Amino acid sequence: MAKGKNLGPARLPVAQLTILAICRFAEPVALTSVFPYLPEMIESFGVEKKDVAQWAGITSAVFSLSQCMTAIMWGRASDTFGRKPTILTGLTCTMICSIIWGMSVSLPMAIIARALHGACNGNVGIIRTMVAEMVPQKELQPRAFSIMPLVWSLGSIFGPSFGGFFAQPAQNFPGIFGNNKFFLTFPFALPNIIASFLFMIGITTGFLFLKETLETKRDKADWGLELGKKVVDSSKLLCCQPRPKHHSPSHPAYDESSAPLLRPATPSETDSSTSFDDNYESSKLKPPVTRPSLREVFTRQSVINLIAYTFLALHSVSYDQILPVFMHHPRQTHDPTNTHLPFKFSGGFGLHSGRIGTIFTLYGVVGCLIQFLIFPPAARKFGILPCFKACAITFPLLCFITPYTALIESPAAQQLAIFAILIIRSFAVIFAFPCCVILLTNSASSLRVLGTLNGFAVSISAVGRAVGPAISGLAFTWGLKMGWVVTPWFLLGLLAALGAVPIWYLEEMEGFGGANGDGDGDEEREPLLQVEDEETSLLGGGGRVEGSSLTKSNADERIGGRRGSKSKPRLEQEEED
C-alpha cells in the first residue's frame, strides 16, 4: 500500500451487510411462523391438550439437538468451500425442510422434519462469522452485530402474522380453500409455501451479489457475481439514463461488482480495491497461520461468555416455545377448589392461532424499533457489559410474573398484560443477544480464533436450546396435570437467575487488537470497505463505543486476513434469535 494515503475512518460495508440480511431474512420468518399454529398442529395429530406442551418442547428440542450435532460440520464446510456457497446450500436445504414440516400429517413425521430442519440450519453462525470478517473494528460492532438481530425482529413481524393467518386455510377461508384437497390434507402447508418464496429471494440475491469473505476463497472466480454484474448493467441500460462510469481494477472475486445496487464506485474505492490487490498478493509470501490451540480459544473470559450464552439461549428459547402453548390452553374458572394462591392455580388464555399471531406480530414490530433505534445508542452510552447485566436481572423477574396473567378475568386485560410483559422482554432479549455476541467476539485474541470460538458457541448453546424446551415442556405438562401452571415459569426463572451469575464475572476485552497481531504493523490503517456517508447513516449514525480508540496496530490485527494471515475461521452461529 502506498505510504501517506489516508482513506479516513473505517466504515460499515453497508451494501454487503444488506445483501447478507436479505439472505438471512427467510430463516427467522420460517421459524417464527410456526409459533402461532404449533399447538393446533400437534392437536391435529391426535395429542391430548394436556400433553401438547410436552410434544411442543420435544419438537423444539430435536431441532436444536440436530443443530448442535451439525454445527461444526457446517463450520468446516464454510472453511473448506467458502462462506457464500455454504450459506446458499443451507438456505436451499432449510427451504425444503420447511415445506416437509408443513406437509407433516403425523407426529413422527413432524419430529423427523423438525430434526432435518435443525440439521440444515447452520447459517446463523456462518453469517455471524461473515459479519466479524467484514467488520472487525470495535467501534462499529454495536451497529454491525445488531443488524442480524434486527433482521430477526423483522422476520418475527411477518412470520407469526402469516403463520397464524394462513394456517388451516380450508377451515379459516372456506370460500377460497374450502374444496381444495391439498390444503384439506395438509392444513399447515400454506405458511411454509409462502416462506419458500422468501427463501428463493434470499438464494437468488446471495448468488448474484454476495461476496466471499473467507480469505482463501476471495481470489476464486465467482460466476454468480459476474452474472449479477451483468444483470445490474442490463437493468441500468434499460431503466436508467447513461452516466459516467468509474472503472476500478479489482480482484475478480472481490471487486465492487455489486456497488451499482446503491451507487457508482468512487475514486477512493479504486484506490482501496487496488491496495487490496497489493495486500493480497503480498500475503501469499507469508506463511499460513497455524490452527489455534484449545488453550488459545478457551481463555477464562471466553469460557465465562460461553456459559452465559448457553443459559441465555436455554431460557429465552424455552420461554418462546411454551408461551404460545400457554396462550392457547383453555381458560379456567378459578374457585377455592382449584386455586390456592400464591402458587396453586392453572389455566391459560384460550386464544386461537390467528390471535396469537397478531400478538406476536405487534411484539415483533416493537422489537424491530428497539433494535433499530434504541440499542445502538444505548450500547454506546452505557456500555455493552452494563446493558447485559441489566438484561440478566430482568429475565428472572419476567418469568416469575408471566403465569399470574392467567388469573386476570377480563380477556382484554389479560392480553394487554401479557403484551406489556412481552414489551419489557423485548428490550431484554434484543439487548442481551447482541451484547453477548459482542463480548464473546472481543474475548477472542485474533480473527483466526474467532471462527473456532463461534463454532463451539453454536454447539454448546444448541444443547441449551435442546434441553430447555424439552424440560420446560415436560414441566408445563406436569403443572397442568397437577394444577400448578407456575411450574415451568418458575423453573425458567431459576435457570435465568443461575445464568445471570457468570455475567458478573465478565470483563470487556479489547478484541483482536489485544494480543499479538497477525498483521503488518508498518502499514497505515485503512477501512475494511469504503462506503459513502449517506449509506452509513442508514444504520443510525457513526458514534464510537466509549473508550475504544482504534490504534494502527489494532486495525492491522483486525484486518489480518487482508494483511497476510491465511486464517481459516472455524465458523459459527443464534437467534435468533
TrEMBL record:
It is found in: Membrane. Keywords: Membrane, Transmembrane, Transmembrane helix, Transport. It comes from Monilinia vaccinii-corymbosi. This is Major facilitator superfamily (MFS) profile domain-containing protein. Residues 242-288, 515-577 are annotated as: Disordered. The chain crosses the membrane at residues 52-74, 86-105, 111-132, 144-168, 188-210, 303-322, 356-375, 382-404, 416-441, 453-480, 486-506. Gene3D superfamilies: MFS general substrate transporter like domains. It comes from the Eukaryota. InterPro entries: MFS, MFS_dom, MFS_trans_sf, Tet-R_TetA/multi-R_MdtG-like. Residues 519-536 have a biased composition (Acidic residues). It holds the Pfam family MFS_1. The lineage of its organism: Eukaryota, Fungi, Dikarya, Ascomycota, Pezizomycotina. Residues 16-511 form the Major facilitator superfamily (MFS) profile domain. GO terms for cellular component: membrane.
